[in-house]
Structures are given as structure tokens and as C-alpha cells.
Amino acid sequence: MSTLAVLLRKPLQPLRRPGRTDLGAWPVVAGLVVIAVVFSSLNDRFLSAENLTNLALQMAATGTISLGIIMVVLLGEIDLSAGSVSGLSAVIMTILSVNHGWPPLAAVAVALVGAASIGLLHGWMFTRLGMPSFVVTLAGLIGWQGLMLYLLGSGGTINLPFDGFLAKLSDTWLPAPVAWLIAVLIVGVCTAAALIDRRLRQAADLPVPSITRIALRLGGLGLALAAVVTVLSADRGVPLLLVIFAALVVGLDLVLQHTVFGRHMYAVGGNAEAARRAGINVTRIRLIAFAAASTLAAAGGILAASRLAAVNQSSGSSDTLLMAIAAAVIGGTSLFGGRGRAYAALLGILVIQSITNGMLLLSVDSSVRYMVTAAVLAVAVAVDSLARRGQPR
Amino acid sequence: MFSARTVSKKYGAVQALDEVSLDLSPGEVVALVGDNGAGKSTLVKVLSGVVTPDGGSVEQDGRPVRMNSPHDAQRLGVATVHQDLALCENLDVVANLFLGDERRRWSVLRPIRMERAARDLLASLDVRIRDIRVPVAMLSGGQRQSVAIARALVGEPRVVILDEPTAALGVEQTAQVLELIRRLRDRGLAVLVISHNLADVRAISDRIVVLRLGRNAGEFRTAESTPEAVVAAITGGVALAGAPRAGTEESA
Ligand SMILES: Nc1ncnc2c1ncn2[C@@H]1O[C@H](COP(=O)(O)OP(=O)(O)OP(=O)(O)O)[C@@H](O)[C@H]1O
Ligand SMILES: [Mg+2]
User: How many angstroms separate the alpha carbon of residue B39 from the centre of ligand 1?
Assistant: First the structure.
């Protein structure tokens, strides 16, 4: 009997060992490898430099929207209005710059500020009126799309001039030497940061990561960057759009990991009541998160408009939102709040967009594409829910 | 001296606190006892700014102070370990210890400073946690309670309130926490401890305050009281000896 009990108990233990439940980004990376192998075996153009460049371009807009989604999902909330807000902001920007002849940057600034106020409005309804974020942003999903259609009027489509600043944004490519220089700089800065951190921790008599670990991580980063630059330079070069998106990801991650605000974001997402008792202004954090989500959605919408060189009635339409949410979750952001990094947007959108891109190459019907995307999202959420349940309480 | 003066609080139809008063002095451990639902936790929440009372006031050295948010409590040097552990399970031990009071330069965290201070603080309290950078969700109940208590000390408070600090702990951890409470008193802090364990209460407190059905139901000098009298005050039975001190209301 007792041996039976021991046998029954034993297999459970490795699951509960601290540190083992968190696999980090590895499942996603493994998924990417599978996707690459499957699609490249079905269509040899999938891994061509040209197609991967297109993939990079396709990722940027939705990925930026996904970054905004992460801001609210980290709090355990949701923003369903991100797609509509992205479309509306793109339309506002286009009307100002094309119809009213505003300088492009001013039009962009107004669109971003407008989106930030929309986000504040959502946050206000959520925090002050106590409406569930799901309902607030569902109303936003419909309402802001309505406003966009109203502004577009009967015309329906407004083109951005092809040689204008805004369209050029998505038709600018880094020359190979510049791209290499940036890659080297990034690795250099990361190396310096890692070594300085290690030195400081040593001086403070705290445990330090081993040199091999640091070297492996930096080596991996260097290899990844080199691969990206090599592949993209073989075609038109590294697109500016990708650089903008990546900079937003890195910037937001630095804010989340290294500032007091970021720490409080995680705290509110993990246990809002505990955060409140610790003296954190929970309402302020929530307002900022919603404002940031809408602002990033607007930025994504502007990038999308730039790529299309136009806005139309389907700007920011429904599958933009689903892709953005799916990307955040697939990348490892927990829908239950408090867990996930900004890099989730990058990894997740890479997965989602690779699948979409691959199926487009194979001319799979959009009906099938939707179902596959939904299945991937469902699996990601299921993994998230199971991981949460598996946590020791 | 830090006091609650005729504090009342209603939750819907439930009168959780009814004109309750309580004094806390430096270097003194006060035990707050009473049956389940007597209003102990509610009083703690009032003293720590988590709940705003409907009537009465919180006073410092006889003057009413503003106590509308946990931030006010922090400012006044009142630190609380709540009964429902107020920890963020997704954050690591260091982050939890400094939550709301992060070491920073401008807005940027200073993780090394915090980690070293956390390690030193936990060591001084004899709290053993192998890796203080794992999420609190990975710790045992006793370890979490230790983190919660250590957390209260980070802001160098003058008043520490512990709501059932030993309820979930084993024998050894309980002894450690009691020893820790004595150390707090020796540092000159005013300490308020809530406990259902009268043996613990007698072991560490200087004074015992009894609540019953949301009212003051007696107050004793621990050294001069008998266990029977305290129990009687808690249950509302008849006291056989060691009658409650004059000046406090009795509901029994
Ligand atoms: N948030 C709340 N909403 C409604 N009623 C509450 C709330 N908090 C406490 N109460 C009620 O107020 C009364 C006092 O509760 P309190 O938690 O202060 O008791 P307690 O003395 O701490 O009990 P215990 O020993 O079980 O912890 C109880 O009747 C309780 O049901
Ligand atoms: Mg209680």
C-alpha cells in the first residue's frame, strides 16, 4: 500500500518543482521551427528572402497593435476596440494630411493624441463607472468603427500619395552596412549591460549568472540578428517598418522591466488589491494602460495605412483585432494578468503571420485560414489556462 | 501614541464595528482578541487606511489624522500584515518586499540595491528562502507569511499591525514569528497582534483588548489577567475573576 502511495505521488513532483513550470519562449520557438519546416516543404518560396521580407512588412502593423493589447492583458483586462481604434486613427491621420494638407507628422501626432484620449475614456468608464473592460471596449469596437465609417463618408477610400512621407515609411529600407552596424551596436550594448550587471551583482555579493549562460544568450541574440539582417539584405534590405516595430517592442519591454511604473503594472495584474494596499494608485495604472493600448493601436493603424498607401472601410477590420489578441497570447502573455513580456507581441505575431503568410502562398481559402488561426489561438489559451491551474497555490 | 477613537463601520446591514476605541503605545504589544466576525480585521483595515470608517477617527498623539488610503497609513508609519496575505504571487520575493516603496533613481528601479536589502532583511529575521528571485507563488505558506511580515518592516514603521500572523504556521515557524514580534517591541515599535490562540497571546502581549460583536468588550493587562476572564469577555459569559478595567464599554 505505502509503496503504491509513493509511486502515485512521485510522478507529480517534478511538475511542482519551482522553476519548472515556466518554459519561457521555447514552446513558441519550437512552434516557429515546425511552421518553417511544414510550409517550406509544401512551398519552397516560403523561406525565400522575398517572402520573409514580405512577412516582416506584414508583421509590423498588427504586431504594434498586439503590443497595445499586451498592456491591458497584463492587467488581466481586455481591449476589443484596438482594431477599430487603429482604423479610426489611420482615417483621422489621412483626412488631416490628404484632405486638409497638414504636415504628415502633425497629422500623425493628432491621430496618436486622439487615440490616447479614446483609451483614457475607456479607462475612465472601466475604473470610475465600474464597467467591465470587456463591455467598454466591445462598445468601442462598434462605436469607433462607426465613427470611422462616418468620417470616410460615401467615398469610402482615401489614398495616400505614393511619394509622400507616410507611404515612404513602409517603402524605406536600411542599406546592408547600416543594418549590420545597428545589429552590432545592439549586441554590444547588451553585452556591456550584461557584464556591468554581473560586476555590480558580484560587488553586492549577490548570486551571479554564469559566464557561459550570458555568452549563450548573447550568442543566440547575435546569431538571430545576423540571420535576419543577412536574409532581409538579400532582398530589398531591412524594412524601416520592422525597425520601428522592434524598437517599440524593446522600448516597452525596458519600461515594463526596469521602471517603477512597469513593476506596478505587473503588481496590479497579479493582485490588484495587494497593489492597492501597498499604496499603488491602481486607477492611475489602469488609465495609463488603456491609454497606451489605444495609442499603440493607433500607431499600428498608421503603419498599416502606410503599407496600403490608403485607408478604406475595412481599415482595422475584425481579423486585425483577433490576430493581435492571438499574437499576445501565443507569445506567452497570460490572459489572467500579471504574466508576459513585451516580446510576446514579436514572437506571437511571427507565429500568426507565418501561418497566414504560408497559407496565402499555398492559396488556402480564407475560410480554412480563419479556422487554423482560431485553432492556434485556442491551443495557446488552453496552455495558458493549464499552466495557471498547475501552479501551486 | 496611535489610537482609534469610537470607530464605527457598517457593511450593509452588518455593524462590523460599533464605536470601538483602541490605543497603541511604542514598545508595547497589544493583542486584539475576539470571536470570528467580532470585527478585528475590520478594525485593522480602518487603522491601515484600507477601509474608511463611517464614524469616529484615527488619532496620533491625540490629534485626528487623515487615514483615507493605504498611502496615508504608510506616511504615518503604520505597516500592516493583513490576514488575507496581500502579496502579488506573480512577483518575486524582492519585488513583493518593496512593493509600493521601490528603491529607484528617478523612475528606474534599482534591483541590486533592493535585492541586497531584501537578503539582509530576511537574514536579520532569520527567514530562510533559497532563491529570493522566484515568484511568491512558488513558496510555502510559512515562507509567504514570513515575506508578508518582513514586507511590513521595509518602510521602517512606528506601528506594526499583524492580523493572525501565526494562523497558518507550524510549531517552529510560529515560535519564530513570536520571537520576531518580541524583537519588534524591543526596537520600540508599537505592535498590534490579532490572534485566536490565547496561549500565543499570553506569551507575547503586554495588554489584551477584547472585541465582541463589533464592540469593545474588555481590556486587560496580560500579567494581571486570568485566562478565564479573557475567555469570558470573548464569549460574553460571566467573568469569574480579573474584571475588565474600568472605562471600557461592556456588551456582556
Ligand atoms: N467586505 C465585507 N463585506 C461585507 N461584510 C463584511 C466585510 N468584511 C467583513 N464583513 C463582516 O463584518 C463582520 C466583522 O468581520 P471581520 O472580518 O472584521 O471579523 P474578524 O473579527 O476579523 O473575524 P475572524 O476571526 O473570522 O477573522 C463580519 O460579520 C463580516 O461578515
Ligand atoms: Mg479576521
Answer: 6
Q: What is the phi-psi region of residue A362: left when phi exceeds 0, alpha when psi lies from -120 to 50, beta otherwise?
A: alpha
Ligand 2 center–CA B209 separation, angstroms: 15
Tell me if A98 sits within 8 A of A161, measured CB to CB: yes
Residue A16 pLDDT > 70: no
Number of compact structural domains in chain A = 1
Mean pLDDT of chain A: 89
Let me know if residue A17 belongs to a domain: no
- The ipTM estimated for the assembled molecules is 0.85
Residue B190 lies in a domain: yes
pLDDT tens column, A179-211: 999 999 999 999 999 999 999 999 999 999 899
Residue B111 covered by a domain: no
CB B95 to CB A201 under 8 A? no
> Is this prediction's pTM over 0.90?
no
Degrees, nearest 5: CA angle A44-A48-A49: 180
Q: Count the domains in chain B.
A: 1
Domain membership flag for residue B120: no
Q: Which domain holds residue B146?
A: 2-87+140-242
| B86 close contact with A: CB closer than 8 A | yes
Q: Does residue A371 lie in a domain region?
A: yes
Cβ–Cβ under 8 Å, residues B210 and B178:
no
Does any CB of chain A come closer than 8 Å to the CB of residue B193?
A: no
Expressed as residue numbers, the domain containing A323 is 25-175+237-386
Spatial CA neighbour of A170 closest among A293, A67, A294, A310: A310
Cα A387 to Cα A22: distance, rounded to the nearest angstrom = 8
Q: Is A182 contained in some domain?
A: no
| Closest of B96, B137, B94 to residue B117, by C-alpha | B94
**Mutation for B interface: A271, A341, A389, most B CBs within 10 A:** A271
Best residue for ligand 1 mutational test, from B11, B22, B33 (most atoms within 8 Å of Cβ): B11
Q: Is the CB of B49 under 6 A from ligand 1?
A: no
Here the CATH number for the domain that contains residue A300 is 1.10.3470
